Amino acid sequence: MGELVRLEVADGVGTIRLDRPKMNAISVQVQEEIRAAAAEATDRDDVRAVVVYGGERVFAAGNDVKEMADMSHVDMVKRSGPLQSAVTAVARIPKPVVAAVTGYALGGGCELALAADVRFAADDAVLGQPEVLLGIIPGAGGTQRLSRLVGPSRAKDIIFTGRFVAAEEALAIGLVDRLYPAASVYEEAVAWARQFSTAAAYAVRGAKECVDRGLETDLETGLEIERQQFAALFATRDREIGMTSFVEQGPGKAVFEGR
How far apart are CA 259 and CA 251, in angstroms? Predict the structure, then answer.
């Protein structure tokens, strides 16, 4: 378990919890502990879905600018790869991932939220990529994931200006998926994640792989990825259980084993 990031597991849901007061600034240590927590969540069979959470007050207000301010070009050439791959480790968790966003999700914090499959936010949350105001650009996936999520023109507006995006606008443009009162965001995210604790784990994993990998390539290749995943699931026990249950009892009554 990390000092500033920990994985908490209950009822099939793993919470990757950032805990670096006051604002969850994402330092090198936090980056590496995020990577470790994502790897643990990936490996553990008792984790069927993941919530990324920064606490009741703030998700993450950005990368640690004080730490980066002293870095040279050579330093950042070495660090930029691990910085980016730590967030990608969350995106590559082969299970459903939901970000529970409270307070600020700015810069690296916004990029971390973008790595989730879905984003639930407090109705007073604020998101953004203000890196240009520091004379840099998003470096942990913001230019790529944001443009894929909200479209290139909206992403350019947000990134070029560095402006903050309030919760209602974030919902309207698809930057977040649902809004809740701040006090209930985490509970709602956990409830969404908990539904996968009894799901057909490899079917969900295959679906995520198809969507994510398909978006990275052309339609024909994406369809081939889907075809291979579809066929592969016929080797799973859950496929047998699901189809037998459907034939004998009707839809929605299967009790899956996760294998």
Answer: 19
Q: Please state whether beta strands 126-128 and 178-180 pair in parallel, antiparallel, or not at all (unpaired).
A: unpaired
Contact indicator for 61, 111 with CB cutoff of 8 Å:
no
Whole-model pTM: value is 0.95
Determine the Cα–Cα distance for residues 121 and 102; give it in Å rounded to an integer. 6
CA 196 to CA 13: how far, in whole Å? Answer: 8
CA–CA gap between residue 108 and residue 83 (Å, rounded): 9
Q: How far is CA 170 from CA 128, 149, 178, 193, in A?
A: 9, 11, 9, 21
Distance of alpha carbon 254 from alpha carbon 104, whole angstroms: 41
- Cα separation, 106 vs 142, in Å, equals 10
Question: What are the pLDDT digits (tens) for 10-56?
Answer: 999 999 999 999 999 999 999 999 999 999 999 999 999 999 999 99
Over residues 67-71, mean pLDDT:
90
Burial of 206-245, coded b for 16+ CB within 10 Å and e otherwise, reads bbbbbeeebeeeeeeebeebbeebeeebeebebbebbeeb
Residue 105 forms beta bridges with which residues? 60, 127
Strands 49-53 and 5-10: unpaired
